[in-house]
Amino acid sequence: MPPIRRVLGHVSVDTARARRKCHRKPNEHSITKGEACLVIKEQGQGSKKNYCRTCARPILQQAQADLDLLTTGIYGQNTE
Which comes out higher in pLDDT, residue 37 or 80? Predict the structure, then answer.
């Protein structure tokens, strides 16, 4: 059986090894060494954007809402 395709391969959580800037609000937020952050790889460019925990929450909430819509669209309301 072939492996299950991962559609969120360009998103991960990383621990900052040094101070990083938060790309959502770079003048207001930063990511300190040792802090967990959301990393989104820009497809085709090879660059990465980092988001602090505060800014990552709405990004992840939107992603969850998008996944919920896809699930409901293909399976309907009953997803069991």
Answer: 37
